[in-house]
Amino acid sequence: MFKNKKGEFRAGWKIAGMLGAVFGSLYLLVFAIQFGFSFIMMATGNLDASTGIGTPLAYQIAAVINASMMFIQTLVMIGIPILLWRKGLKKDLRSLGLPALKKHWRSMGMGLAVGAGSMTLVFLLLLFTDSAQVLTWTPQWNFSFLVMLAMYILVGYSEEIVCRGYIQGVMKQTHNPILIVLVPSILFSLMHSANSGMGLIPYLNLFLIGLYLSLITLSSGSLYPAIGYHIFWNFFQGPVYGFSVSGGMESGLLSTYMKGNSLLNGGAFGPEGGLIVTAVILLMIGVWYWKNQAQLPVLWKQLKSENVETASEE
């Protein structure tokens, strides 16, 4: 039940253990922070225990804590899978898809460029179909722009390490190419279930995005193209073009609002909830297939073999 014929823990248990460790740690961490904050605020007279009303200082500190939670969450999602991969599975970072970046910065750069280009295509199609309108073309610069860049860098790393790194890496022990790309893509989509406005099209689009990221990870042999794509796909979607990102409201350099048919533009969820993103991601998958069709038989044979490791050099 727990182990396969080779005496390894089955992929499903490894994935469940990692996700349990990640979300369990996040729950305990949030509880500890909230308890500690409440205790200190009440002890210092900044929070009334009977009414729950705090002083301006208490609300200011609470705002800082809330703003920091996303950074804390991403650090946990980066740290725990790496720890389990290194100490639990006894594998190196190269096999997780994280070889030395100094030898793979071009693939990271290509991922960033393609991610920005893909979202720019979505932006232009939304304007062309009259599904969105830019209220002002004057960039609205502020410090939060840099903060959001830092956050999306961490989000890109964390979600790719969890899904295309750990989950996809563990699924390789099944030697089933279909499951190797489908399982992390499905779980990537389901991980966004708590986002505001989730529905059929958002689930579909997030699955397709996950599928594309799984494919480019397999063909490149590292996580860097997927990490780069993920970072700038989100960053250009929110802080640059001003769309909602997976249901989360954003303010961007441009002030853009959706109009018309929400089936095309995704409405309040953002472009990832609309069919224009569906078309763009299907196009990206088609381009990937066109570029890699010659090597697919070799890649599939490698995935079915008994010795499946990341091909990247350290």
Automatic annotation (TrEMBL):
Domain (CAAX prenyl protease 2/Lysostaphin resistance protein A-like): residue spans on this chain: 143-236
InterPro entries xref list: Rce1/LyrA-like_dom (IPR003675)
Signal among keywords: no
Membrane-crossing segments per the record: 12-37, 57-84, 105-128, 140-157, 178-194, 200-219, 231-249, 269-290
Signal peptide: none
Swiss-Prot/TrEMBL keywords: Hydrolase, Membrane, Metalloprotease, Protease, Transmembrane, Transmembrane helix
Record flagged with keyword Membrane: yes
Highest taxon of source: Bacteria
GO BP term, example: CAAX-box protein maturation
GO molecular function: endopeptidase activity; metallopeptidase activity
Protein name per UniProt: CPBP family intramembrane metalloprotease
Natural source organism: Holdemania massiliensis
Phylogenetic classification of the source organism: Bacteria, Bacillati, Bacillota, Erysipelotrichia, Erysipelotrichales
